[in-house]
Amino acid sequence: MPTPSRDWREFPQRYRLEAGACQACDFVAFPLRLVCPKCGGREFVPAKLAEAGRLLTYTIIRVPPEPFEDQAPYAVGIAELDDGVKLTAQVVDCDFDALAVGMRVRLEFRKLSEDGAAGVIHYGYKFVPE
Amino acid sequence: MRDVAIIGVGMTKWGELWDKSLRTIFTETALLAIDDAGVDRIDSMVVGCMSSGLFTGQEHLASLLADYLGRTPVPAARVESACSSGGLALRQGFIEVASGMSDIVLVGGVEKMTDVTGCEATYALGTAADQDYEGFHGLTFPGLYAMMAVAHMHRYGTTREQLALVAVKNHDNGSRNPLAQFPFKITVDGVLSSVLVADPLRILDCSPITDGAAAVILCPAEMAGKLKKPAVRITGSGQATDTIALSSRQDLTWLESTHIASQKALAMAGRKIGDIDLFEVHDCFTIAEIMVTEALGLVEKGAGGRAVEEGLTARDGRFPVNPSGGLKAKGHPVGATGVAQAVEIVKQLRGEAGDRQIKGAKRGLAQNMGGTGGSSVVHVFETE
To answer: Which candidate, A67, A69, A74, places its Cα nearest to that of B198?
Structure first.
């Protein structure tokens, strides 16, 4: 089981949706990076992710990894947010039959998983239908 | 750079090998390759293995395998690039011989996957994805490829039946490969009624958990002529990387790393894709083979589903893909897969492929891929 520091250092991204905007071009890095993959720039200014977007693809996980065993089946998807950033998260509060490419979703703060009965509880963002 | 030849190949029956350890599986296979080449020495070893640590708790693998092969103190290196570890091992061995650093190099690939539970194996394989931004959200490998499938179906109209036909074709080929884990045929109805893993992918769209190894012996082409087996030359080698997080890709339906690696390998060989007689590609899931045929340029973007439906990639088609049975039927011990692709192509080019022989094959191409395409390795093989 990893130490809590592994979770803690991701809080800015997972709890507050903090990203970095490249000063030299329009790329928004999420998670934060030291080098812009688009232009090679190394200067970023803090930015916050757009909180809504459009689903590009999705699936329903029927055979889960261990930390998610009690949640299966559950939907996950990749959405393109309104600022152009693409990210992966679960899609919740949505019937599986209603999932569709192009559907509007917004990000909500939710519980994701637990490290066993006495370990860290992991929180982060999930998609819900807008 | 020196020309490089493969002068020996080895592979044993793949499957759930409960009675055999990691070191035994590797050593049996390496001995077959050494005996096939008829060499009395090796100068160096390169071994592809994705995760002996997570699958068996064993690291420091290259030295262990050199020891059990009775070859200490030869230099031995283990390389890792997820499911393309085997292809990368072949490339490193190729570079070592081409550069003049070593003459006779043993390249092996191995994975022992059944010493852990299915759940733990799923976790180990999942480490090839972005742990903090994909795995953290409950993604699995079938889940990632399922999302590529949904995007491909939405954009290009690829059908559920076309996906199934990839598995049916590869099992038909695998039914002629006695070393395959699943040497039997399946039907489209069988695929479509198998259990869902990650919609729309079902269990018969997925390559299995497998124990297995494969090995080849490389040497300078000029030295190969003096040995007992007909030599197959490696005329092209290409490798490329891409983001390992699927969400960071420009296009969820396109494998850029495979495209670039294949262009590099073909350029080195001085060949075009149409010059190649057979292909061993990374069909870890049915959608993967469809996308790989597009990235290699066998068909236009989006036409991979129709290609399998029309028989283009069948054993008797214009571009035979995965005559060995592919990862789907032959099995997928992840670190061994890239080396086993080379073994199959050498057997085909020597005319030793039995019931699945592609008649008159002179040139083959192997494409091995890590994760969802975060790495790709492509080699071109030729015989006179």
So the answer is: A74
Q: Return the axis-axis angle of helices B286-296 and B160-174, rounded to nearest 10°.
A: 90
Fold annotation for B4-117+210-224:
Peroxisomal Thiolase; Chain A, domain 1 (3.40.47)
* Average pLDDT rounded to a whole number, residues A55-74: 94
The answer to whether B123 contacts chain A (CB < 8 Å) is: yes
Q: Where are the domains of chain B?
A: 4-117+210-224, 129-207+234-382
Which residues from A are below 8 Å from B148, CB to CB?
Answer: 57
Give the three-state DSSP class for B81: strand
Rounded to a whole number, what is the distance in Å from the CA of B207 to chain A's nearest CA? 15
The count of C-alpha atoms lying within 13 angstroms of the C-alpha of B104, restricted to the half-sphere facing its C-beta, is 16
CATH of domain B129-207+234-382: 3.40.47.10
For A2-13, what is the mean pLDDT? 90
Choosing from B49, B83, B219, B284, which is the catalytic residue? Answer: B83
Nearest residue to B91 via CA among B111, B74, B109, B75: B109
Q: Is B165 on the interface with A (CB under 8 A)?
A: no
Indicate the helix (H) or strand (E) that contains B103: none
Q: What is the per-residue pLDDT across B166-187, written as a single tens digit (0 to 9) for each?
A: 999 999 999 999 999 999 999 9
A62: nearest CB among B133, B197, B243:
B197
Which residues have CB under 8 Å from B250's CB, separation 6+? B256
SS3 B267: helix
Give dist(CA B99, CA A38) in Å, integer.
34
The SS3 assignment for B237 reads strand
Phi and psi at A83, nearest 5°, equal -95, 10
The SS3 assignment for B247 reads: helix
If phi over 0 gives left and psi between -120 and 50 gives alpha, with beta otherwise, what is residue B268? alpha
The per-residue pLDDT for range B287-327, each reduced to its tens digit, is 999 999 999 999 999 999 999 999 999 999 999 999 999 99
B83 is catalytic: yes
For the beta sheet containing B212-220, the strands, ordered from the edge strand earlier in sequence to the opposite edge, are B76-79, B44-48, B105-111, B212-220, B4-11, B232-241, B375-382, B363-370, B278-280
Supply A103's token pair: 């559907």
| DSSP H or E stretch at residue B108 | strand B105-111
d(CA B165, CA B186): 10
A122 and B139 within 8 Å at the Cβ level: the answer is no
Using CA atoms, how far apart are residues B181 and B105, in angstroms rounded to an integer?
A: 28
pTM score of the predicted model: 0.98
Judged by DSSP in three states, B14 sits in: coil
Query: How far apart, in whole angstroms, are the C-alpha atoms of residue B49 and residue B63?
Result: 13
Q: Which domains does chain A have, with CATH numbers?
A: 4-129 (2.40.50.840)
Q: What is residue B145's predicted lDDT score, i.e. its pLDDT? A: 98
B331, two tokens: 């099995």
C-beta neighbour count of A29 within 10 angstroms = 19
